[in-house]
Amino acid sequence: MPTFNDPTADAEEARQALRGLAHATIRIDDPDRLYGIVGELLGSARSFEQSLIQMAGASLTYQGRAAHDDGDRNLGAADAWAAADALRQAAQHASALESSLDQASGHLGRIAWQRPQRQWVTVVFLQGDEAEQVLDLVDRGDLDDALSQLRGYDYGDETTNAALANGHVYDEPPTDLNSQRVDDDDYALIYSLALGHAGLYRAYIPPADATTAGDGPQHTGPAQDAANAEAARRALDERRNRVRGDGSWFTPDRIAEVKRNRGLER
Question: Region (Disordered): which ranges (predicted)?
Answer without folding.
Answer: 211-266
